[in-house]
Design brief:
- The protein is α+β, with helices and mostly antiparallel strands and 247 residues long.
- It has two domains: 101 residues, Nuclear Transport Factor 2, Chain: A; 123 residues, Glutaredoxin (3-Layer(aba) Sandwich).
- The protein has a four-stranded antiparallel β-sheet. Strands 5-7-6-8 form a four-stranded mixed β-sheet, sandwiched between helices.
- Strand 2 and strand 3 form a beta hairpin.
- About 6% of the residues have low confidence.
């Protein structure tokens, strides 16, 4: 009986120290990240690696924006190694764990970004965007956040007819590329309204997105500045064109 009690005590002791070590790893890792980045995080998952006992593979989540970051950490949580695109391991199981977890983190980040961006865009008022109506039956709606000086936005707009075959398209004009962008975007917002037919709205937008368009120098850019700030100040939307399908 004594031997069994001793064995049970040793097991409980081992579990206790295992818990203490795990807690210490979590505390060390989160403290290190928060100290170096001034960002609050939480640990989502921790995987021991078969090829080495010195490193763990960890997924952490930034609390403010729910973005997940894969990384390696030393077993004491006192050093972090960022995950790069180049990774090889002698154990295929390690490669599989890391590939799967990284893909899941990327998918989670994309979904989180779309949800957060969706809340910002859904909060816009109709006077903050230009609506192009589709002739499709029961169309869904795309929002396209675009800067008139952005080359990729110009390319997106050249293909706008394809989107209009299936969706209404709301163009949210912003100016993230400087004062000239703000003026062009403001010109579009001032000169396109809901009373215009779709052809005229489309032609006016094509004019603004053309390479040789010049906006008046004295145009008021306040409204577009406010829209731009409301969408980009949180860092959820980081570039243009940004396309969001309304639910």
């Amino acid at each position: 009986m004594t031997t069994k009690k001793n064995a049970l005590a040793l097991i409980l002791l081992a579990l206790f120290f295992g818990y203490i070590n795990a807690a210490s790893f979590d505390d060390n890792l989160t403290s290190l990240i928060e100290k170096e980045t001034q960002t609050k995080v939480k640990i989502i998952s921790t995987n021991d690696l078969k090829a080495t006992k010195d490193l763990k593979f960890v997924i952490v989540e930034i609390i403010d924006n729910a973005q997940r970051i894969p990384m390696f950490a030393t077993k004491d949580g006192k050093m972090i190694i960022g995950l790069s695109n180049m990774f090889f391991a002698s154990e295929k199981a390690d490669e599989d764990i890391i590939a799967k977890a990284s893909a899941e983190a990327m998918s989670h980040n994309e979904n989180s970004q779309q949800m957060a961006a969706g809340k910002l865009i859904d909060g816009l008022k109709p006077e903050q965007y230009i609506t192009l109506n589709s002739k499709a039956k029961n169309p869904k709606t795309y929002f396209i956040v675009a800067d008139p000086n952005c080359g990729y936005c110009k390319e997106e707009f050249r293909n706008i007819d394809e989107k209009l075959k299936t969706h209404n398209v709301n163009i949210v004009m912003v100016g993230i590329l400087g004062e000239d962008s703000l003026k062009k975007a403001s010109y579009a917002m001032d000169n396109i309204n809901s009373k215009m037919n779709e052809k005229d709205k489309l032609n006016k937008l094509k004019e603004v997105f053309s390479n040789n368009f010049k906006a008046p120098s004295n145009i008021d850019t306040t409204k577009v500045k406010n829209t731009t700030e409301s969408l980009f100040k949180s860092g959820v939307i980081r570039g243009v064109p940004f396309i969001y399908e309304a639910k």
